[in-house]
Each structure stands twice: as structure tokens, then as C-alpha cells.
């Protein structure tokens, strides 16, 4: 019985303390501000889709030969195909080993990750020369996104304080400690595309392929927003 009373008393004390803290916050004069900051970053993760198929070649070049040619082409560009290239169409890959008849047109799809626009242009140009022109841009992203978010949040909270001080000064008051901080979702999504580079490449004359295709990707916008309540003194 005494143990039950003691537990009840502790719960009541805890509730009273919570209400007191809430009351103290409500009674405290404060100013609420919201600040947002944003920036643009150049993507350093570029994902290309590569599709190879027998039906793209009038001489019925088999997929294995095209795959080998693709690998050698990428290796000449100093691309680590063990890390940067992955097969995405596994079902057709299994079918290649199970069905080996001449009337079946086999195909494979890959995703290749490169780290700058110059390399992407070189890849597209080199693959076109090798007879592989079905290349499309899938997405672009930025590898240092987490660190950038932290930097932007720090700038946002400093801007929120500057705004609070600017509003409090004409009133003859000063800004104290932060009483409450609300962090909104930061905008940092990768940029996805559905753009066929094959069309762009097929429109080029053969002599134009002597130079690397110049590509400029859209910069990624990253933003951070905060709500901050500062005490007023």
C-alpha cells in the first residue's frame, strides 16, 4: 500500500514539474522567427542508363560481344566497371543463359555512375563510336549532401537570430537564448531525368564525334528552413 502511494506521489510530482515548465515557457516573453537559406551545387554523381540489344544491329551482333566492347570502351576511359557499372535487367540476363536460340533477341540494361559532366560526355561519345548509342540520363545527385545540410541549418539559425535582433532593437529589448527550435525538412532530392541521349547523338554527323560531347547538367538546389523562438529580455 505504501509502495503504491509512493509511486502515485512521484507521478503527481512529475506532472506538476512538467506543467510548471510549460507555464514558465508560456510566461516567458519571446519572439518567433523563421529563416530559410538555399544554395546550388554542381552534381558529382551522374547515373547513365546503357541499353544493349541485338535488334539495334543489322548484322545481328550478339549481346555478349556488345557487352565486351562496352567494357573495353569504359576501361579505356579509366572507369572502374567493377564499382561504377551494374546490371539492372537481371531477368534478361538469366534468359541469356537459359535460352540460346537464334530467333531470340537478347538485351541487357546497365547503370553507370560517373562523377562529372566531362566524363559523362566522354562516355557517351566513346560508346557511340563503339556502336552503342542507346544511352539515357537517369539522375544526378551530390555526394556531400549531409554535410551541406548541416552548414545550411547553421546559417539558417544565425539568420533567424539576426532577424529577431532586428525586430527587438526598436523596442529597446534584446534577444536571449533560444527557447524552441523547429527544423523543417530540407530540400535535397536527386534530380531525375527521362531524357534519351540517343536522339541527341544520332543527330550528330560522324565527323562531329571526333570531339567529346559537351554536357552541362542542371545544378541541384538545396535549402533549409527553421523556426526559432528566442527569449526577449
Provide a descriptive summary of the structure in words:
It is a single chain. Helix content is 41%, strand content 29%. It has a domain at 42-142 and 191-218: Alpha-Beta Plaits, CATH 3.30.70. With 233 residues, the protein is of the alpha+beta class. The chain has a 5-stranded antiparallel beta sheet. A 3-stranded antiparallel beta sheet has the order 1-8-6, with helices on one face. The model is unreliable at 12-18, 91-98 and 196-207 (pLDDT under 50). It is rod-shaped, with a radius of gyration of 30 Å.
Offer a concise description of the structure.
The chain is an alpha+beta fold and 233 residues long. It is 41% helix and 29% strand.
Question: What's the helix and strand layout?
Answer:
Layout: H1 2-27, E1 30-41, E2 45-53, H2 63-76, H3 81-84, E3 85-87, H4 90-98, E4 107-114, H5 117-129, E5 135-141, H6 145-168, E6 175-183, E7 191-196, H7 197-202, E8 220-232
Antiparallel strand pairs: 1-8, 2-4, 2-5, 3-4, 5-7, 6-8
Task: Identify the strand order in the major beta sheet.
Answer: 3-4-2-5-7
Assign a percent range to the helix content: 40-55%
**What is the overall number of helices?**
7
Query: Alpha-carbon distance between the termini?
Result: 49 Å
The total beta strand count reads 8
Q: Please give the CATH class of one domain.
A: Alpha Beta
Shape: rod-shaped
- Which fold name corresponds to the CATH topology of one domain? Alpha-Beta Plaits
Most strands sheet? 5 strands, antiparallel
CATH architecture of one domain: 2-Layer Sandwich
Which structural class should the secondary elements be placed in?
alpha+beta
- β content, as a range? 25-35%
- Give the oligomeric state of the chains in this entry, treating copies of one chain as homo and distinct chains as hetero: single chain
Low-confidence stretches: 12-18, 91-98, 196-207
Alpha-carbon Rg, integer = 30 Å
* Mean pLDDT metric: 77
Topology order in helix (H) and strand (E) letters? HEEHHEHEHEHEEHE
